[in-house]
Fold:
Amino acid sequence: MEKFLPIFIVRWMSFLKKFLRGVAVAIIFSFPEIPNANAGGEEPAAREIQAPIGQGSRDFSMPVYANDIAAIVNNEIITMTRLMREIAPLIPRIRAESRSQEEFQRKMRQYQEMVLNAFIERVLIVSDFKSKGGKIPDTYEKKEYEAFIRSRFNDDRVAFAKHLRESGESVREFKRDISEHAIVSFVLMGELRAKNEISPAKIREYYDEHIHDFIVDRQIYVRKITLLKSNYGEDELQAKLAELASAIRSGDDIQFLVKKFNDLPMTQIGWISADQMIPEFANALRGLQVGEFTAPITLDSKVYVLYAADEKPAKKFTLDEVRDDIEKILAAKYQAEAKDKYMKKLKEKAYIKVFL
Structure:
């Protein structure tokens, strides 16, 4: 009897933990407005605590929520722990891009709201899918699970286990996420596939209304010669520019100029239209023919000379050339509209309480 006692205790504690969590959810549902109550100076349930992250002068802090509840969707709790686990990989970039504590907090809040909305939609889609008797094959889930480990960790199970430990996520939770992602993909790519027929008439209509999107301006393959003013005295600079301008006027080709002015770096800008460049470059390039140089262009501490190495004439794509592209654009548009309509319907029927 005694040797079975530890197992009994473990099972009893597990049952007690689940029972208490169920009681907590029941209490919240019984008083749905209490967690958000802030009238009369009451402190909100989702109290923010400033927790430092990062190092050095950019040591910004981010909010940590005392009750760990980000939202309740029907009978499921979305925790702040789960939410922040998704955002954690982005925090170094957000911190680096933020110039102040206020900007960091604002960006963090934007990401939190975006990720939380995705979680809410996932919960609703999965719940609706299962309520209709839908089921993803176990083999499909296993395939997704194995594909993730293979692509992310090069099939290294030790590295994968370390990742789970560091993120605080269990294998069971990870497999649940894989299953839910698979269901959402199945629903959005399958059941929500646009039912609108993309007829030739609709494709023609889109083409006519967006004709400017299918016109490509003349493009030039541009090379650039750069003179750094600080490398020359004023008289030397003027002499160098005069020599370069003279060589250009005399019709010297690009190879000759590269050899003659080997102290001047030449770089490739590549294929570009004049309207894509800064005004000073755009004005110089308009009308420039293949094999021609622009006059020297002075901008701040540098002087540039542009060379037109090749060109692609302006082109208007025909309907037949872009038909497949338009069909994809319309399919994506109809699918987005179908998803919005579907999510609106699910949210109208759901109980959603957000604590951010």
Notes: Residues 101-131 form the longest helix (31 residues). The two ends are 49 Å apart (CA to CA). Confidence is low (pLDDT under 50) at residues 1-59. The chain has twelve helices and eleven strands.
